[in-house]
């Protein structure tokens, strides 16, 4: 992918209100009649913010499970996708352009990274997956253990969902807990995610900061762990 068409001074405010206005102007022009004018707006006012947005999200959330050696090639793919969606941006709906397009980028990268992560993990020996500190999520290989774990997860989710307001009296805490439980409910569809991707997924469902998600997740984990030990030792849940 070629370098950004227009170099600017380094600034944290690369995607500003002026960028949003440029996108609105771009969308307001006829793709055929105003092709040259649209191209100028994109080259001078939109390309660089899109380039930096994709770059920052890739590195901030460490979306590094790719099929390309040069991450700028990946950025190019995402920017092409953004351009296919740019006409859908409507500022009258209340969303800011930075948030709107940032969400599109993160969702695209979650799906892309998950697909490539699964390809990589199939090629990695089980002993490597089970190493302490490994970047990979390891599922126990024994089919019987997996079956028992699946059964327990179903029981755990059903019990926690039914008693969610007793376990988490505050409405916001209960909403976060339910968003986390939704990952358990859809575990067959979601497959393998890295930790950062899971946090993004939860934040898309509940608008909260990461420390709050971590706090609720830890509470759920304590409930899960203490009762799972009992389940393994006795063959039934004490819920």
Structure described in brief:
This protein is mainly alpha-helical and 239 residues long. It has helices at residues 17-28, 35-60, 71-85, 97-121, 126-129, 143-162, 164-167, 171-185, 187-190, 195-205, 210-234.
What can you tell me about this protein's structure?
The chain has 11 helices and no strands. It has 239 residues and is mainly alpha-helical. The longest helix has 26 residues, at 35-60. It is elongated, with a radius of gyration of 22 Å. The model is unreliable at 126-146 (pLDDT under 50).
Indicate the mean pLDDT.
79
User: What class do helices, strands and sheet pairing give?
Assistant: mainly alpha
The helix/strand series, from N terminus to C terminus, equals HHHHHHHHHHH
How many helices? The count is: 11
N-to-C span: 56 Å
Shape field: elongated
Q: What low-confidence regions span 5 or more consecutive residues with pLDDT below 50?
A: 126-146
Instruction: Kindly state the number of beta strands.
Output: 0
Strand content: under 5%
Task: Assign a percent range to the helix content.
Answer: 55-70%
The radius of gyration computed from the alpha-carbon positions, rounded to a whole number of angstroms, is 22 Å
Keywords:
single chain; 239 residues; mainly alpha; 67% helix; elongated
Write the layout of secondary structure elements.
Elements: H1 17-28, H2 35-60, H3 71-85, H4 97-121, H5 126-129, H6 143-162, H7 164-167, H8 171-185, H9 187-190, H10 195-205, H11 210-234
Helix pairs in contact: 1-2, 2-3, 2-4, 4-10, 6-8, 6-11, 8-11
């Amino acid at each position: 992918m070629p370098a950004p068409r227009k170099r600017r001074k380094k600034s944290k405010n690369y995607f500003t209100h002026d960028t949003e206005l440029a996108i609105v102007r771009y969308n307001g022009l006829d793709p055929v009649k105003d092709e040259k004018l649209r191209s100028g707006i994109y080259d001078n006012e939109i390309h660089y913010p899109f380039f930096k947005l994709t770059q920052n999200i890739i590195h901030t959330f460490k979306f590094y499970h790719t099929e390309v050696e040069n991450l700028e090639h990946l950025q190019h793919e995402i920017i092409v996708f953004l351009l296919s969606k740019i006409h859908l941006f409507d500022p009258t709906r209340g969303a800011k352009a930075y948030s709107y397009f940032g969400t599109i980028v993160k969702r695209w990268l979650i799906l892309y990274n998950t697909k490539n992560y699964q390809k990589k993990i199939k090629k990695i020996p089980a002993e490597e997956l089970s190493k302490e500190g490994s970047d990979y999520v390891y599922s126990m290989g024994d089919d019987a253990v997996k079956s028992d774990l699946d059964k327990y997860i179903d029981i755990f989710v059903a019990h926690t969902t039914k008693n969610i307001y007793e376990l988490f009296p505050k409405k916001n805490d209960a909403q976060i807990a339910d968003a986390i439980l939704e990952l358990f409910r859809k575990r067959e569809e979601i497959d393998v995610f890295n930790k950062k991707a899971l946090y993004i997924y939860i934040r898309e469902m509940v608008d909260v900061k990461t420390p709050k998600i971590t706090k609720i997740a830890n509470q759920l984990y304590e409930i899960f762990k203490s009762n799972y030990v009992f389940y393994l030792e006795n063959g039934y849940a004490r819920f």
